[in-house]
Structure formats: C-alpha cells, structure tokens
Write a structure and sequence with these properties.
Subcellular location (chains A, B): Membrane
Protein name (chains A, B): Sodium/hydrogen exchanger
Largest interface: A-B, 93 and 93 residues
Number of strands of chain A: 0
Largest sheet of chain A: none
Radius of gyration of chain A: 25 Å
Order of helices and strands of chain A: HHHHHHHHHHHHHHHHHHHHHHHH
Family (chains A, B): Belongs to the monovalent cation:proton antiporter 1 (CPA1) transporter (TC 2.A.36) family.
Strand content of chain A: under 5%
Distance between the termini of chain A: 65 Å
Structural class of chain A: mainly alpha
GO biological process, one term (chains A, B): regulation of intracellular pH
Oligomer: homodimer
Keywords (chains A, B): Antiport, Ion transport, Membrane, Potassium, Potassium transport, Sodium, Sodium transport, Transmembrane, Transmembrane helix, Transport
Chain lengths: 544, 544
C-alpha cells in the first residue's frame, strides 16, 4: 500500500519537476544567453567583435568546461535538431529581416539580387563540387560518392544570411546589406529547386529540356512562395484594418501579426515551397500595410519584439554551434589523421573563396551594365566587400552537413566524421576570422560610411526618388576617384535607357496602383512620399 | 548510382520540409489560434462569452471535424504533453500575472490569500478525497486505491489560475481578483508540498511531528521560491541599471527581461521549488524595479509582449483541451456504462462545489476578524463570488489526471478511462457553465463594479494609503446596506488593533526601506507616492 502511494506521488512529483536533465540544460542555455547579451553589450564599442562571435566563443568555452566535467564524454547538452532550427529559430530571424528591410533599396536592386542568389549560387555550387571531387580523391578522404560531392557543393554554397545580418549594418551600408542579405534569401529557394530537380530527373539522360524544366521549377517556386507571403501579409492587414482589432485590445493585434507571420512560413513548408522566401515577403508586406493599421503601442511592441526574438534566436544558434563544435565523438577519427582533416578544411575554405569570387565579380559587371548613373553602380571596392561578407558559413551549413553525413547525430564512417569536423572547422573559422575582419575591411575600403549614418536618414527623408538613397554611400570623393575604371566605360545611352527604364516605370506604376487600389483596401501609409513611419526610420528619429 | 543520389536528395528534401504530419498540425493550430483571436474580438462586447470559452468551443468543433475526417479514429492532432504545458505555456501566463498585478492590493490581502491557498486547498482536498472514497465504492467505478483517491483530491482541489484570469477583471473587481488569483498561485506550492510530504513520510506511522514537518516543508518551499523570484528580479534590475543596457540597444533590454524571467522559473524547477510562485514574484519585482530602469520603448514593448505571450498561451491551452476532449479512445469504455460516467462526473462536480464552500466561507469569516474597518471586510456577496470564481478546473487538472490515470496518453483500464472522461467532463462543464455564469453573477451581486473602472484609476492615483484602493468596490450604498449582517459584528477594538497594526507597520517600514536602500541600488520609481508609471496604470492613461 505504502509502496503504491509513493509510486503515485513520485509520478506526480516527476510531473511537477519534469525531466531533470532537460531542465538542467535549459537552465544552462538560458543563463548563457543572458551572459552573451551582457557581454555583447560590454563589447558594443569594440571595433572587432560582434554578438555572433561572442556567442560562438562563449559556446566553445562552455563546451570545454562540459567536456572536462563529463570526463571527456560529450561537450554539448542538446542534440542538434534540424526541426528546432528550421521550425523555431530561422522563421523569426528571416521575418524580422523582411520587416526591417529598407524596401526601396531592396526592390531597386531586385534584379542584381536575383542574379546573385540564383545564378551565383549555381556557379558557386558547381565550382565547389568540381573542386572537391578533384582534390579530395588525392587527399585520401574516403569513399565519397557523387551524391556526397553534390551535397558538399550545396552545403558550402549556402551563404548564411544570419551571419550577414550581424556583420553588415543596414544604416551604414544599405546597398551592400540589401545585396548580400537578399542573395542569402534567394539562395534558399535555389537550393530547394536544385535538390528537387536532381531528385526528379535522371542524371544519365541529360538533354536540353532539363534546363528548361529546372528554370520552370525555379520560377514556380519563387513566384508561389512570394505570392503566399504577400497574400498572408495582405490578409493580416485587411483583417486588422476591417475589424479594427485595436479597438478592444492591443494584445490581439500583436498576437495576430505574430501568428500570421508564422502561419505564412508554416503554410509554405506545408506546400513544399520555400518558407524563408515566404516569410521574408510576408515581413515586407506587413511592414508596408499591417504595421500602419495597428495602434501606436502595437507598432512599438511589434517592432521591438520581432527584433528581440530574432536577436535571441541568432545568439542561440551561434551559442549552440560553438558548444557542439568540440563534441569528442566526431574528433576521434580525426586524431588518427590530423593532416587529412586540416587539408580538407583548407581546401573547402579555398573553394568557398574561389566559388564566391567566380560569381560576384562577373555578375557585378553584368549588373553594372544595366545601371544608368555612375552612382548606382557597384564599385570594385564594394564588390570586394560583397565577396567577403558572403563568405561566412553558419548554422544552415551545419544543419545540411548533419543531415547528409550523420545518422541521428552520430558518425560511424571515417569519411563522414572528417566531413563533419571539416564543416565545423569551416564554420568556426569563417565566422570568427572572416567575421572579425569584415568591420575593419569595410572601414578600410569605404572609410566614410561610419559617419554617414545621420546623413542617410536626413537625405532619404527629403528625397523623393529611390536613387538618392545611395548618395551618402557612393557620393564621397574618394569613392568616385577610386572607381574610375568602372565608371568610365561608356555605353550607348539607348541601351542604358532600355535597361533602366523598366525599373523606373514599374516603380511609378506600382506607386499609382498602391495609392489607388491597395491602400484604400489594406491601409498602410508612407510609401508616398518617403515612408515617414517605417519601422527603421521611426527608430532613428524617435524611439531610440 | 541514380538510386544513391536520389536517396541523398530525398534526405535533403526531407530536411527542408521537416516532418510533414507535424507541419500539418502546426498549421492547423496556428490558424485556429488566429481564428480564436478574431472571433474573440467580435464577441468582445458579448456579456456572456469570454476568450477561453470561445477557444474551448472552437477546439471541440475542430475535434468533431477531425473525428469525422479521420473516420472516428482520433480527434486531436497533438498528444497532450505535460512538458509543453509546464515548461512553455504556464510560465508566461503566471509571469505576466505577476507583472501586471496590482501590487498594493495583493500585499494588503496577503494573509487572506495565504489562508485560502494553503489551508483552503488542504480542506478542499480532504473533502474531495473522503467524498470520492465513500461514493465511488457505491457507484461501481472499479478498483481504485487509496493513492488514486488522494490523487483525485489533489486533481480537483487545484483551482485553475488561468481560468480565473479570464473571468475576473482586475480593474473592475481588484479585491476579488487578487484573492482568487493569489489563492491559485499559492495553491501550487501547497500541492507540491503535499505530494512531497506524503511521499517521504510513512502513512502508517502518523504522529504529531508529521504535521510539524509538513509545516516546515511548506514554509521552506514558500520562502525559498519567493526569495529566488525576488533575487532574480533584483539581479535583472541591477544589471540593467548598472550597465545601462538601453544605451546601445532596446532589444537587449527586452531580451534580458524575458530571459531572466524564464530563468527564474527554470531555476526553481531545477531546485525542486515551485516555479509558479517564483516566476510570479519575479514578475512583481520586475514590474517594481526593472521595468522602470529600461527605455520608454522597452517599457511599452515588454508590457505588451508579455501580455500577448500570456494571451496566446492561454488560448492555446483551451483550444487544446477542447480538441482533446472528444478523443474516441477514452470514450469507448464509457459507452458501455454511460450511467456510471455521468454519476461520477456529477459527484465530482458536487464535491468541488462542497469542498470549496467548506473553506471559503469559514476562512473569509476568520479573515474578516482581522480587518478593522467595515470597508476592508469580505462581504457575503463577495464570498459567494470568490467561491464561484474558483470552481473552474482547467489544464492543470487535465495534466494531473493524464499523469495519474494514463500511460503515455493511453488508457487501458476501465476505471482509469472513467476517471479521464470524468475529468474532461468536469473541466468542460465547469469552464463553460460556471465560466459563462460568472460575469452575470458579478453583475447581479455587485451591480456597480462595471462602471467604477474609471474612478478606480482616478482615486488610486490621488490616494496615498492602500486602503483607498477598495473604496470604489465596497463604498457603494447598496453594498454597505447588503452587508449589514457581516459588518455589524462588533469586536473589542483592542483585538482589531492588534491584528491590523502589523500590516500597516510593515507597509510603512517597507516604504522607508525601499526609498533608503532598495531604490538607490535597483532603480525603479513609483512606489512613492502612488506608482504613476506602473504598467497597468500607464496603459489606462496613455497607451490604450
């Protein structure tokens, strides 16, 4: 009798205390997140560090401590879960990026972003796959197959948009930010199409229709994902405007915006579309319409809480990657042949550098051909920064590598263990070294940007054409002098007009359409004349 | 070769689309949450409905639809998880309650709350256990043991603080709100002690030291949990004030407040304390100190985002409970003997009514003995409302019942199935019927409260003593006339003075201490003279 009662109550007690091991690890994680935030604050004025590097280093140090305490058994306390990453951590980050992005800057560079994101990723993937196939055979890495090499290409062609958000500042370098970040978003769609295409087509029977089919697939995926995001955003704007939700409760408005943004991501995943693209465009539409339909306190709340969620998710990812890096199991194969592992990592880093250079410079040249004024062109110095800022590989690469080379988090084959450790090395090295050097590089190549933050806001408020957005960035004397080699290429003005007119016409037509049809239905204000109430601008003027 | 490649990419595709079934269920849940919010908005002015009943009904309807579509197999799409409930959904609700609670009202009624929460729960648990033991034997429910009966007592003695938050309005009935909600919070600590005590002591050897031991345990748990919450709150205030986090980033402040609040809950769970008590007091301290140390936009953001998180978590719980209610597996035993099930549910509902009446009225009488002025006493009409508003049983009861009577969500024994279905019936019936009748009951018994919202805020702003908070509630002529039976009991004034002096002295000492030592270190403002910047008040004046 006594035994039965005590078993009953031990069950009830278990319930109230939950699984103790998971409670311990959650405590540790939450405490580390707090630590990262405080340390990040203290290092804010440091010109080298950024929050992701801090989190990565804290994660690694904690990994060392756990390793010592557990007697060399394990360095991490949570098993890496792709679900956790793709379902919970990534959506807030990408949504917030869309919500806070400077819309004019993004759409002005739309074609360039598409070039980089779609064609560029293909080029980079091809080069990494070919390079790895050639070199790894000589390095005696192990029995890797064609599928593995294609996967390596895909894994290391994935520009990590999370890292980009950390090293580039939207206010200081708006053009670079929109190009590199936009590329990262489009990147995802390209990868999904790439995988689907290779899976559904027989690689032995290569004929011209495959390319056409591939193109069709890509267009379908891109358009469908974008439309889904736009429609969800518009629906939220319509509901909040029509029903005037804020009349009764601010909390309902905020909850509805959060839930509908998340719904757009989940709907895209449900339809096998690119959730990242969908939630990004949902963020853009929400900041253009929905955000203006809610009450003043909801505006402040949504702006800051979306940013906070995204901020915490980013730190969480880097903390985890740092902590997981030292997991002893993966390194035991490496200790037998340290040379191979170092060589593999170096080769991969080299291929990443090469693969990215192979598309940034040619595609920038192509993109410059379409630009009318010298101010709108991507200067050589800026191309170098675009090349450099997209070199970092992060949690997306880790997630893909884990999926390809492990079975539920464990590695049994030597070649798989080497690939995992090489991925970790590349992620750590690229984030820390490339990341640390990005801020100084921007300061070196574009010395005026750090001070032009104020003037960007002032000028953009007064200006009525999208062009003026780039003036503070490109208008400095040094820049113009340095870019003579690019700017002096004279082309027939008719071609320039032909290439540049559609963008301007589309923009004018859009503004007319927005004023006449969209805004009366979906609310929103500020696209005409210059978005006085956009989340980012209001931040600078009033709420910081 | 082709096979291997396609398997590689099917893996990669699986990664990008995640587990499709869970994506479907998440879509449905998020869409239903949006639906609940919109419908809740449309029904806002309805005098009967509230958001939890809406969510419960929508959940039940969805359950019916899923049941039809799945061919009668299952009505729910997520398996009820106690972790989900206790680790993710409950903390934001309780933290927000502490964050938004009217602190003076709460501490003024502290002794009454402790009486209700500790002694009251014990009385209620004893009555339900004894009643169930007697009656269930006659009903032929099945082979239940003493442990089961004790668990039934604990399950149905648990006042659901989430429901209470929904039916009682802090602005309209501050005294009732703080009493019933405070009781629910203390309730949790009592339950944990109860389980621990019975587990660790041999029930066969009952001697006087057990009671003493039990009392010691309860005091330790209560004091330790409270201190942990207070210390975490103070630490957050100190860090944010000392380092002036808001200087660089608003997001860091918001993130730090959220993470430290959650950390307090997890630390309590780690130390086997009552997380609910801890996070509640952490919320109180944060609203008193930390909230005043952050920037203006962080204040608005935290206030609304905590409220939104709590709001969404509440709707989620009710939606789930409604959806789970129709799960066919549990009902198949019941269909054999519908009479027994109806009788069991009715008996339990009756015992809940009786058990609550058995401590509300006697303990209110005791509490009134300690009050000096007639205005501070709990009138008979208010006692009826306290009794009624605490009758609802919700997700806590469900979680406890699932833990006691099922093995990983499934029931195999007939008596267990009957207990689960009875719990569901009691939860649905008490929430819908008792919940629907609470608002009209308050209107019937206290007709003036709905209009006194404005004056509450005005008077509390001018007043300098805690007493005046209750004036708008109790000061109306009708109330005073109706409560003559209570108020006319004259006791020697020396006893009244003896009983009431400590509270006032403690309050004065606390204010001195707060001004002299606490506020210079931990920041915060507003306790003197009357909290002009408390989250709730600012809401009424400026931000709604």
């Amino acid at each position: 009798m006594t035994f039965e009662i005590s078993s009953v109550f031990s069950k009830l007690q278990m319930l109230s205390t939950s699984d103790h091991a998971s409670v311990v690890s959650m405590n540790l994680f939450v405490a580390l997140l707090c630590g990262c935030i405080v340390i990040g604050h203290l290092l804010e004025e440091n010109r080298w560090m950024n929050e992701s590097i801090t989190a990565l280093l804290i994660g690694t140090s904690t990994g060392v401590i756990i390793l010592l305490f557990s007697g060399g058994k394990s360095s991490h306390i949570l098993v890496f879960s792709e679900d956790l990453f793709f379902i919970y951590l990534l959506p807030p980050i990408i949504f917030n990026a869309g919500f806070q992005v400077k819309k004019k800057q993004f759409f002005k560079n739309f074609m360039t972003i598409m070039l980089f994101g779609a064609i560029g990723t293909l080029i980079s993937c091809t080069i990494i796959t070919l390079g790895a196939t050639e070199i790894f055979k000589k390095l005696d890495v192990g029995p890797l197959e064609l599928g593995d090499y294609l996967a390596i290409g895909a894994i290391f062609a994935a520009t990590d948009s999370v890292c980009t958000l950390q090293v580039l500042n939207q206010d200081e370098t708006p053009l670079l930010y929109s190009l590199v970040f936009g590329e990262g978003v489009v990147n995802d769609a390209t990868s999904v199409v790439l995988f689907n295409a290779i899976q559904s087509f027989d690689l032995d029977q290569i004929d011209p229709t495959i390319a056409l089919h591939f193109l069709g697939n890509f267009l379908y995926l891109f358009i469908a994902s974008t439309m889904l995001g736009v429609l969800t955003g518009l629906l939220s704007a319509y509901i909040i405007k029509k029903l005037y939700i804020g009349r009764h409760s601010t909390d309902r408005e905020v909850a509805l915006m959060m839930l509908m943004a998340y719904l757009s991501y989940m709907l895209a995943e449900l339809s096998y579309l690119s959730g990242i693209l969908t939630v990004f465009f949902c963020g853009i539409v929400m900041s253009h319409y929905t955000w203006h339909n809610v009450t003043e306190s909801s505006r402040i709340t949504t702006k800051h809480s979306f940013a906070t969620l995204s901020f915490v998710a980013e730190i969480f990812i880097f903390l985890y990657v740092g902590m997981d890096a030292l997991d002893i199991e993966k390194w035991k194969f490496v200790s037998d042949s340290p040379g191979t592992s170092v060589a593999t990592s170096s080769v991969l880093l080299g291929l990443i550098l090469l693969g990215r250079a192979a598309f940034v410079f040619p595609l920038s040249f192509l993109s410059n051909l379409a630009k009318k004024s010298p101010n709108e062109k991507i200067s050589f110095r800026q191309q170098v920064i675009i090349w450099w800022a997209g070199l970092m590989r992060g949690a997306v690469s880790m997630a893909l590598a884990y999926n390809q080379f492990t079975m539920s988090g464990h590695t049994s084959l030597r070649c798989n263990a080497i690939m995992i450790t090489s991925t970790i090395t590349v992620v750590l090295f690229s984030t820390v070294v490339f990341g640390l050097m990005t801020k100084p590089l921007i300061r070196l190549l574009l010395p005026n940007t750090a001070h032009s933050k104020e003037s960007t806001i002032t000028i953009s408020t007064d200006a009525s054409t999208p062009k003026s957005f780039t003036v503070p960035l490109l208008g400095s004397a040094q820049d113009s002098e340095a870019d003579i080699d690019n700017h002096d290429i004279h082309r027939p003005s008719s071609i320039r007009a032909l290439l540049s007119t559609p963008t301007h016409t589309v923009h004018r037509l859009w503004r007319k359409f927005d004023d006449a049809f969209m805004r009366p239905v979906f609310g929103g204000r500020g696209f005409v004349p210059v978005e006085p109430g956009s989340p980012t601008e209001r931040n600078g003027h009033q709420w910081r």
